[in-house]
What does this fold into?
Amino acid sequence: MQIQNTVNDAPHTIETEPRRLLVHLLRDSLRLTGVHIGCDTSQCGACTVLIDDKTAKSCTVLAAQTEGCSVHTIEGMSQDAITTALKRAFNECHGLQCGFCTPGMLMAARALLLATPHPSEEKVREALHGNLCRCTGYQNIVDAVLLAATLLDPGMAQPARSVQEASHE
Ligand code: FES
Ligand code: FES
It folds into this structure.
């Protein structure tokens, strides 16, 4: 069958098997290998992409279901303000170690900040609950997303952590 969608803002017309998973289409046909596969139980979130700006685990979605949709992967995170803020914040808060979960985490964080520019810590944890990390213990990732929200809106109160760090600079 043939489907038409956009992937990272580029229009595609793609021949695919009806039962093919989106993650395989992205990785094997489009070579977007930043979409990771970390499990075979739909639990890890390493394969998270955005479909019409909402998170989706691409191992749980048929490629055919993205007919007419806009799909974004980590490779397509444009150099806009949200991306820039997230990159800086993950760096400053040590929001990654091995980096395997990071593309999925960043996509989930991006979807959150697109929908909720001023998230509470609880909201951040809720938004990331489908993304597993075996390295960081999560707190640094949560801090990073909160800091990114602050960087995007300097009028917001600084997270305690970054205030402390700034005072030691
Ligand atoms: S690869 Fe683990 S949830 Fe998709
Ligand atoms: S940084 Fe290693 S799994 Fe998250």
User: Anything to note?
Assistant: Residues 35 and 47 are 5 Å apart (CA to CA). The longest helix spans residues 102-115.
